[in-house]
Specification:
Two copies of one chain form a homodimer. By secondary structure, chain A is α/β, with parallel strands linked by helices. Chain A folds into two domains: 127 residues, Nucleotidyltransferase, domain 5, CATH 3.30.420.40; 93 residues, ATPase, nucleotide binding domain (Nucleotidyltransferase, domain 5, 2-Layer Sandwich). Chain A starts with a strand and ends with a helix. At the A-B interface, β2, β3 and α7 of A face β2, β3 and α7 of B. β3 of chain A pairs antiparallel with β3 of chain B.
Chain lengths: 237, 237
């Protein structure tokens, strides 16, 4: 089985290809404001490097968020288009789950954190002691201080913080959790689409693949445009 | 600080670039028999994707093995050449250490395994509970059954097996260790040069960088050519 997966939820886009349970090509590239121009050429280049074509791919996989609205939308649309054209199914996965999976078999709970701007983080808390993480706090968007209260209520043990949100809020996390806060080495701070491939394979084994039209983003909060529209058109009490 | 690192010890070459403790580009490509033709264009492409040039790089880093003789030799020579031309220092790291670091903060010991052909593996055993692994069995080359004896003598606890050698010898490992053997999800089975960047940064912090001529491969065993030479010219007893 051959799987193509992408994650465009952060400014570092990740693309990976597997053949028969082996990663054969993987790429992490900075895509600030250039995602739409770069994602298709990058997919073509990776396929060529693995001596594959789009027609060889059995499942088209994308992160469905949370993360950058434009990034996630672009990633999902790209995979929907490719899957539809090739007549193949899709699978979606949470960028936070993929990020937490950088700490597979971990004894401490893992808290993936992506900076959501507006003084908030996209966050979750996972038990990663088995290959597929189990959520202790589901994917959410909230101020980091509120998240740290929830984590403190859940556990008195060490927690691994990973992702760009862990870098942004390093001092606050240390202040609140002291030496119970473990910070990921910086090579682990991005969601890897190679982990998305593992999740897609798991979905395939359970017969839980999607039609292209069923692959939809999960944003967790309204977009700036929607919030502005609501503000502009709402009637004051 | 900007760091360029490569790992060419297996048939999946890994290249990564960091800027100020952040990975800005990373690539994993299959290089069966095409390494020398592909490594420089791939480095140029990654540098361009991160809007950097060779002159921006402060440290040139390569895996020094163990692994493919030709691969390691090619990777080391490439980094020596670039560092010499740019007047910058080098750092080297073990491919097995980088592979073990895929399980940072792990409570079980980690056994990185690369298939060394001739019914042997390149192997080590690391305590990865801290960000920089401590060896329990140093990098070595040996038959997998002998390694498993050594591991059993060291610990009665679970051990994580990672790398293409863990895939090759899955059945033997399971037979000997039963459910104490944990196998890495397949997205973790390659040494990542991004982990080599962490090790190089650690070397830089300790003032332990190398002159280009000091960056040398560690092969662990003689090459086929050397073994053949010894066999051909040795005088029988």
């Amino acid at each position: 089985m051959k799987i193509l997966a992408i994650d465009t939820s952060t400014s570092l886009a990740s693309i990976a290809i597997s053949t028969d349970r082996q990663i054969v090509a993987e790429s992490l590239i900075s895509t600030n404001r250039t995602l739409s121009a770069r994602i298709i050429p990058e997919i073509e280049r990776l396929l060529a490097s693995a001596s594959l074509t789009l027609q060889d791919i059995d499942i088209f996989v994308s992160s469905i968020g949370p993360g950058s609205f434009t990034g996630v939308r672009g990633g999902v649309a790209t995979m929907q288009g490719l899957a539809l054209a090739c007549g193949k199914p899709c699978a979606g996965y949470s960028s936070l789950t993929a990020l937490a999976m950088n700490f597979s078999f971990s004894t401490p709970l893992v808290c993936p954190l992506l900076d959501a701007r507006k003084s908030e983080v996209y966050a979750a808390l996972y038990d990663c002691s088995t290959p597929f993480p189990s959520p202790r706090i589901n994917d959410c968007v909230l101020p980091p201080a509120v998240l740290l209260d929830q984590i403190t209520a859940q556990t008195g043990n060490p927690v691994i913080f990973v992702g760009d949100g862990a870098v942004c809020y390093h001092d606050l996390i240390t202040e609140r959790l002291g030496d119970r806060a473990l910070f990921a080495p910086f090579s682990f701070n991005s969601p890897r689409s190679a982990n998305g491939i593992l999740l897609a394979q798991h979905s395939a084994n359970r017969g839980a693949l999607l039609e292209p039209r069923e692959l939809l983003p999960i944003y967790l909060r309204a977009s700036d445009a929607e919030m502005l529209k609501q503000k502009t058109f709402s009637v004051p009490d």
